[in-house]
Design goal:
The complex is a heterodimer of chains A (about 300) and B (about 100).
Chain A: H1 3-24, H2 28-48, H3 52-79, H4 89-111, H5 121-131, H6 136-144, H7 146-164, E1 175-176, H8 187-209, H9 217-233, H10 245-268, H11 280-304, E2 307-309
Antiparallel strand pairs in A: 1-2
Chain B: H1 2-29, H2 33-55, H3 62-93
Classes of the chains: A mainly alpha (about 300), B mainly alpha (about 100).
């Protein structure tokens, strides 16, 4: 056994152990921490599988953003601990049965793979040069499966609408109930002053490099969202009310530009979401820049939660 | 020259790994939150610093080396500040936060 395969086996054992521990954990806070560790370990597994794009997304979304959303949920559950409603046995049984069914389905799919795995990867690599992109993942996302990518961004906005709709009517259009720790002169203030310039440069770099190397709009947008949340939590900037014009525009600018270029493709390139020859790369980079801003705003607001005051 | 670089790498990364091990033992064995935090900061600062120092001779150029150093600086910054925040909360609300 070589050193790298020993490392891989160790990593797999660790992932399984952390996954099992996360499920077995009785306390919600500890389970969320377990889940974040699980996400970071999974990111390492993706790096070992040479899927750096997926690893970046897993670390940013699976480890970071989802972890933050769930920590927020745990904090809310603690506040509501008084009226604790226990789920009834039939509900728990049904949840257990559904989990077993999903697990069995995934296990069957993984343990009995087809003899020849259907793949379009060679075709992608052959035709990638036409798009002017160097990163095959960006090529698939923005050229071959552009419709999926567009719908994915729309889903993000729908998710945000779902969170917002939890607000009572009286505070609709108000300020999200993000918990703010404004203590002037604290170390958090220092971090919120020092880190965002670095983070913004990293986000711009990730978005720009996504055309050639691993990276892209989603990873860059997550870093932007994290920086925005940091500044808001430290109380250096106020949490905007969800009715603000600029905020609404920021949320839709990415999908709207993507859709606009897609519709223009019907006239200029004879297909929806097709790019006119020679202009593919600049158009894709423009879409990515706009999407990075929209994703950053959407993720930041998702973590900020539903409006709670006007 | 290559051999000398490799020896440097093995030496410093091993030293770094030792600090990670010591920090983990401290995290598991120390009695309360503040001493456990103390153990963890040594891992962040010294352990990762030594690992980065060990990897520098293997970096493929100045730019890659600068990236490694900036990762260490960023982890140090976030580690030190998060430790301060946790310690502040422990002092304010007691060990059960």
């Amino acid at each position: 056994m070589t050193i790298s395969s020993a490392f891989d086996v160790g990593l797999v054992v660790l992932i399984l152990a952390v996954g099992a521990a996360t499920i077995a954990m009785r306390e919600a806070f500890a389970a969320v921490i377990g889940y974040v560790v699980y996400g970071l370990l999974l990111a390492m597994a993706w790096v070992r599988l040479a899927a750096v794009d997926v690893a970046l997304t897993e670390a940013a979304i699976g480890g970071g953003m989802t972890g933050m959303l769930m920590l927020g949920a745990v904090a809310r559950l603690r506040l509501a601990e008084g009226n604790d409603i226990r789920t009834s046995l039939p509900v728990r049984l049904a949840a257990g049965v559904l989990c077993v069914l999903v697990t069995a389905g995934v296990a069957v799919a993984i343990l009995s793979p087809p003899k020849t795995i259907p793949t379009l990867a060679p075709m992608v690599m052959e035709n990638l040069a036409q798009s002017g992109l160097g990163n095959p993942v960006a090529g698939v996302l923005f050229v071959y499966r552009a419709l999926d990518t567009l719908l994915e961004k729309v889903v993000l906005i729908l998710a945000l609408l779902g969170v917002w709709s939890l607000a009572p009517d009286s505070v609709w259009g108000g300020i999200p109930g993000l918990r703010v720790y404004a203590r002037p002169g604290s170390t958090l203030t220092f971090l919120a002053q020092l880190l965002p310039p670095v983070g913004i440069v990293v986000a711009v770099y990730m978005c720009w490099v996504g055309a050639k190397e691993p990276g892209g709009a989603f990873q860059g947008g997550t870093v932007l969202a994290a920086m925005w949340l940091l500044v808001m939590i430290a109380g250096l900037t106020s949490v905007p009310s969800i009715g603000e014009r600029w905020l609404r525009r920021l949320l839709v600018v990415g999908p709207v530009i993507f859709l606009g270029i897609g519709l223009a493709g019907m006239v200029l390139a004879n297909a929806f979401l097709a790019y006119p020859p020679g202009y593919a790369k600049p158009l894709i980079v423009a879409v990515e820049v706009a999407l990075t801003l929209s994703i950053g705003a959407a993720l930041g607001l998702l973590a900020a939660g539903p409006p709670e005051r006007v | 020259m290559k051999l000398a670089f490799d020896i440097l790498t093995v030496f410093f990364v091993s030293c770094g790994a030792f600090f990670f091990l010591a920090g983990t033992v401290g995290l598991l064995r120390f009695p309360d939150s503040l001493t456990r935090l103390h153990a963890l900061t040594k891992v962040d600062n010294l352990g990762l610093g030594l690992v980065v120092l060990g990897l520098l001779p293997q970096a493929s150029g100045l730019f890659a080396a600068l990236k490694l150093v900036s990762i260490w600086l960023l982890v140090q910054l976030s580690g030190a500040i998060v430790t301060q925040l946790i310690a502040g909360t422990v002092r304010q609300n007691g060990p059960d936060g």
